[in-house]
Each structure stands twice: as structure tokens, then as C-alpha cells.
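Posting this for the archive.
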Amino acid sequence: MSNRIEGKVVVITGASSGLGESTARHLSSLGATVVLGARRKERLDALVEELTAAGGKAVAYATDVTRQADVQALIQGALDSFGRVDVLINNAGLMAIAPMSETKVEEWDRMIDINIKGLLYGVAAVLPVFERQNAGHLINIASVAGIKVFSPGGTVYSGTKYAVRAITEGLRHELGGAVRTTIISPGAVDSELKYGSSHDASAKNVVEFYKQAISADSVARAIAYAIEQPADVDINEVVLRPTVQEF
């Protein structure tokens, strides 16, 4: 019996570690064809080798989501290799926590470039494909910090994740019908995200906060749940946290 994931072509950004890597493994184990994008091509290649050795189908492309041409090439690579794209998971992200008074403008720019513009580049690349197919699924990784401002130090990061939720909800209104949209809003999940802060005090606080983190597999299972629903069912948002997380 089909699990409604088997045979789907799934593109994942930020796939070289953490949520993206775990999601690639999980979906591949369920029979999905995975197309992996990230900057660290050597890690992607190792993951592709692992998945294909286990009988899966996977390819990888060096992708910096802050470059629109890279994201376009990632989607085109999926089309060239497999002829379609069924799901795009906009997962690449940066969390640089610091008080606003530190005025870390370069980090603000970087978060906006990756968390918002990188996601929009993915949308721009894949929407024409979904429209031609009259089918598709956009899954955007937000955060509980997009529901409640992460404080202290998370003002700009939260702003980017509020934007992810707003953009995804707007897409749901605009697209409807054949194209599904899902927001995944995790709490503390074990990944490299916690190492994105250059402000020493904030970095220590983040690492301490993430001691309660749950595994990235938890997010992978939530993503699979959204994908495996019948075509007329749209899981609009999943919020998941460690049971002990108060924020």
C-alpha cells in the first residue's frame, strides 16, 4: 500500500545537517526521491552515497540560498534528473541571537537574506513548476519564535520567522486548490542552529536553552505527516516543542 510519500520528488534546502539531513533520511526511507541543496557539497555527497547505498534515489547540488541563481539551479536540477518536483522544503536558516543594542547589522542582513529572501527564492523557482503540474506542496520551516518573540536577543530572528509564517499563510490564500502549504514551527531541536550567535553571552544562553532540545527526527516525522495526507487535505501548521520547554 502506498504511503503517499513513495515516489514523490522532494527538494530540501539546508540539507547538509540537522533538520534537513534528518528529513532527507526519513523521507528517503519512506520511498521519496530527495534532491538536496546546501553550501557544504562534500557533506551532501556523503549523504547521497548513504541514501543510494540503502536503495534510495538522491542527488545533491551546492546551493547558497542567498543566491537566487543557485536556488533556481537546484529546482532545475530536480527537473532535469526526475522530471518533476512534488515538494519543496525551505529549511535553510540562521539564528544569530544578540541584544538589539549590539547593532549587529551584518547578522541582521544575513538572517534576512537566508530566512526570508532565501525562502522567497525557493518560492519563485518552484511556483511555475507547481502551476504547470497543477500540483505541489510548499513546506516552510518557521519556529515557535515566529509565534512568540524569543527574548532576550531574538528580536530580529523572531521577525524573520514571523515573516515566514505570514508569507506561507499568504501563499495559502493565493494558491489554494492544487498547491498545498505547510508551516512547521519547531521549538528547541538539536541542530547546528544553536551555534549561529557571535555574541558571547547570548551564545552561552542559547546553548544552555538547547540542552532541552528534542531530536531533529521529530521534525522529520512532522514533515512526513504533512506530506502523506490525501491531496485534498492541507496541514497548514504544525507546532512542536520539547515537553519541558516553557517558551
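The two ends are 40 Å apart (CA to CA). The chain has a mean pLDDT of 95.
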